[in-house]
Design a protein that fits this description.
Elements lengths: L4 E10 L1 H13 L7 E12 L1 H16 L3 E5 L3 H10 L6 E3 L2 H7 L5
Parallel strand pairs: 1-2, 2-3, 3-4
Helix pairs in contact: 1-2
Length: 108
């Protein structure tokens, strides 16, 4: 896989207790020269608004540094959260890593 792509796999419940950790992990990538971050939510059971806030903040931080953030494999609950908040228009969301690889990596 492309050296400039970093995949972050989330799992379980992402909420106030661990969303700060998620933000720190993504922000930490800024110093590593990564150009594309893919957040894989395949194993996420539940995500709350603080997790969404952490993702939005990370998205803005990364974008300001010229790094793109994408999401893939979100479940129905997460999709509804994104749609209700309009974040499905902000984030580019792929069905899975394969689709991401075909569309993004093929064009980079």
């Amino acid at each position: 896989m492309n050296q400039q792509v970093q995949v972050i796999k989330l799992s379980g419940i992402i909420n106030t207790a661990n969303s700060q950790e998620l933000r720190e992990e993504i922000t930490h990538l800024l110093n590593s020269g990564i150009k594309i971050v893919l957040v894989d939510c395949q194993d996420v059971i539940f995500m709350d608004s603080s997790a969404l806030g952490a993702l939005v903040l990370a998205f803005k931080t990364l974008r300001a540094a010229g790094t793109k953030l994408f999401l893939c494999s979100i479940n129905e609950q997460v999709r509804i959260l994104f749609e209700l908040t309009g974040m499905d228009k902000v984030f580019e969301i792929f069905n899975n890593q394969d689709e991401f690889n075909q569309i993004i990596l093929a064009n980079s």
